[in-house]
Amino acid sequence: MIFLDAAATTPVRREAIEAMWPFLTGEFGNPSSAHSLGSSAARALRSARESVAQILGCLPGEIIFTAGGTEADNLAVKGIALARQAADPRRRRVLISAVEHPAVSESASFLSRFAGMSVEVVPVDATGRVDPADFASRLGEDMALASIMYANNEIGTVQPIAALAAAAGRIPFHTDAVQAACWMPLDVRTLGVDALSLSGHKIGAPKGSGVLYLSSRVAAEPVLHGGGQERGFRSGTQNVAFAVAFARALELAAAEQAAAATRTTALRDDFIAEILGRVPGAVLTGHPQERLPSVASFYFPGTSGESVLLELERRSVLCSAGSACAAGSDEPSPVLAAIGLSASAAQTSIRFSLPASVTAGELTQAADAVVQSIAAVGQLHSQPTPGA
Ligand code: PLP
Question: 93 in helix, strand or coil?
Answer without folding.
Answer: strand
